[in-house]
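Running this now, will post back.
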Amino acid sequence: MPSFGKCPSSNIDFFLILSVTRTGNLPSVGGGGDSGDGGDKERDAEEERLRQEAIKEAEEKRRLKHKKMEEEREGIRANIREKVWFCLII
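Update: finished.
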């Protein structure tokens, strides 16, 4: 861990480097975003919609996978119950 000395800029440099290494891109610094024609907002909205759609699809696949696994387990349990019941009868 770096030592936080008397110079506040060293702390800023450390956190800048830390944020770059965690996210892989530089944090934005002011201006330029509001002067656009809204194309970025539309693109961001479309990307968010696609992301949400991908999340829903992945969740549905996961749900179906687990449902199938539970049905297989229930079949195994039923088989075991039948064997135990058969053994108790004999």
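DSSP finds two helices and no strands in the chain. More later if anyone needs it.
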